[in-house]
Amino acid sequence: MSISTASKALNDTGRMGSETRERVKRIAAEIGYRPNALARGLLSKRSFTIGLLTNDTYGRFTLPVMAGISDALVDHGVSVFLCAIEDDPALAQIHVDAMLDKQVDGIIATGKRLDRRLPVDLSNLHVPVVYAFTEGTQNSVTFRSDDEQGARLAVEWLMKIGRRRVAHVTGPQEFFSVRERAGAYHEVAGHREPVLYGVWSESWGHDAVEQLWKRSGEKPDALFCGNDQIARGAVDALRERGVKVPQDVSVIGFDNWEIVAAQTRPPLTTVDMELKELGRQAGLTVLALAEGRPVDPGVRKLPCRLIVRQSCGGKAPRE
Amino acid sequence: MSISTASKALNDTGRMGSETRERVKRIAAEIGYRPNALARGLLSKRSFTIGLLTNDTYGRFTLPVMAGISDALVDHGVSVFLCAIEDDPALAQIHVDAMLDKQVDGIIATGKRLDRRLPVDLSNLHVPVVYAFTEGTQNSVTFRSDDEQGARLAVEWLMKIGRRRVAHVTGPQEFFSVRERAGAYHEVAGHREPVLYGVWSESWGHDAVEQLWKRSGEKPDALFCGNDQIARGAVDALRERGVKVPQDVSVIGFDNWEIVAAQTRPPLTTVDMELKELGRQAGLTVLALAEGRPVDPGVRKLPCRLIVRQSCGGKAPRE
DNA sequence: GTGATCTGAGAAAAGCTTTTACCAACCATC
DNA sequence: GATGGTTGGTAAAAGCTTTTCTCAGATCAC
């Protein structure tokens, strides 16, 4: 039997007797034949491989994104190269070169910050590039979370359960998402309380509560925190002051970093940026581009989702 | 100029005039020529690609291991497929098949637990397999942390700074590493205090302190905790009881999970399992096997390292 | 029975690189 | 000047699939 006949039988292509086809398939299965993807890729110009480039060492954001990508692409037989580049331009270039050598069908760039670029230029590659949760280039396809909507979700929830003096404790003002969330906070809460900018740490959350409670006048009855770590520090500080969460003060976080949010006492109500879904869409998009299907460039904002736990009181909208 | 001449020039092989060689290289650099790794792999039977299989969804252990692997292999031009399989045998098989199709030079299996197997059989593959931080098969090469030595390190440190009543609060007894650490604890601390088995959560650390302090008799002057989360819960509980850390009680964790250990107040002294180094060695080993170099099978225990922060008092051994 | 159509299968090329074998030219040696 | 050894380079094969082309044989219509 010739090689080409076997190939056609296995790929359900060409004309041949159905019993020949079946026989080939059976024998192939018996001997455990698996086509060499390298040879196939050499011919088809598709390697069924993509690269994921990230500077997020701890995987805080990258892992959910990666999970989504992998989830979306495994059905299409696509595998993912993970390259952690740690803000090192030389290392990044090495990894990009290695990926290009290996004929990746596309590259997804992801990071830990919406308003920062990866330290490597991906704009003139001959393979498609999609940006996810990191700043993209002109005319690129970029996926990001809708932080404004997420923040609105949080503050509206606090208002809905009856809170009126909502303070906002968040990260450094130079973060784009900080400004976006603060803007939405102002809009919904109506400037009743100030915004406290700081750093992304528990101790800042702790300190911010000290500041707020040391001030004269009415204390906040709710805290909208810029991330779960700050929220956790705030909850700890409130407990130490004898302020009850959620009875006296509602606290809401951002990120839904389960390891922090779910272990806090009480568990944190928080905003989830749906990073897995973001990864899924990025994966499908880079696949579409690799297959030559047209994709409109631009920034796509994905809505966030509110995760209701116990730190706000109120009732969950469902479940 | 013929193709073969160019190939030999670029690979510094064959005989040719040095000025021809230079000229070829210069032109190659000019036109940005990069050899197709697929075609090269087809011939050399090496894809310069390995697969990393993990069931550790949150990357708690996998990310440092991955970083070490990548770090060790990037110099050799090897890229890494990351496959998260989430304890799903079917998904695992799909990923393994995909990797084999893509002619990976080897596979590293890693997980979140030393005494559990990945839900897929890797024992009869025609590519080398190395296990890292997960249970391997007979005659395989397995890298793991030396939990016994790590625990000894921790308890000896507590003794050295003058603590005499060291309690051990740890995870579920069915974990192999829990038993190993408890064994070392007993050996070094001399059975002065009981071992409290529980779960890997902050709240268990919190509860354990309640239990210990509610009992009559002398209280412990040190806690050796099975991981950083438990330690953190314990520290919180101690603070709530007005017990000062580290003045009254020293607390030591395990894992050096920076995000927990460094954010605890006070920052946790803890045991680092050197997972990055573990990954590095696993990477180099699978590479050696892929290149046909002999490697003795067996389990290799890597020593842990004590990270001294502020939760124990005492002085750091150096720096 | 013969030409036309169709069917099943094999041959060959292409994809890109590396390696081995080979060849032509050159120099030196006797 | 013939021989032998270098030297610098080319031709070809191999690695594994897929696709296109070709071909032998069979079937069918007239």
**Order of the strands making up the biggest sheet of chain A:** 2-1-3-4-5-11
Extract low-pLDDT stretches of chain A: none
The CATH architecture of the largest domain in chain A is 3-Layer(aba) Sandwich
**What is the CATH superfamily classification of the largest domain in chain A?**
Response regulator
Structural class of chain A: alpha/beta
Secondary structure: number of strands of chain A = 12
Bulk shape of chain A: elongated
Assess the beta-strand content of chain A as a share of residues: 15-25%
- How far the N terminus sits from the C terminus of chain A, by CA atoms, comes to 61 Å
Order of helices and strands of chain A: HHHEHEHEEEHEHEHEHEHEHEE
The helix tally of chain A amounts to: 11
Query: How many structural domains are formed by the residues of chain A?
Result: 3
Name the helicity range of chain A: 40-55%
Greatest chain-chain interface? A-B, 50 and 51 residues
Multimeric state? homodimer
Largest sheet, strands/sense/barrel of chain A: 6 strands, parallel
CATH topology of the largest domain in chain A: Rossmann fold
Mean pLDDT of chain A: 93
